[in-house]
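Let us work through a complete example step by step.
Step 1: write down the sequence.
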Amino acid sequence: MIRVVHRLEKEGLRARLILQVHDELIVEAPEEEAPLVQQLLTEEMEQAIHLSVPMVAEATIGKKLGMMQKLKYCFCIQTAGYIA
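Step 2: predict the structure and record it as tokens.
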């Protein structure tokens, strides 16, 4: 999250991080900056930590939060009677 804020400032963008909810970042940006901010967020979040498997981030653009949310996959792992 801090890397995203620093990168937005470094790039001289007017976009600003306004909310973090668990693994989601909500950024407010002028419409003309949206594609660049989308790319920036994806890059920064995918490079946030180096793992032995790739970490994939997806940034979506929308005028309202409800327009951006889409559920692609839902995983439920059950072991020994517990749901994780």
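Step 3: interpret the result. The longest strand covers residues 16-21.
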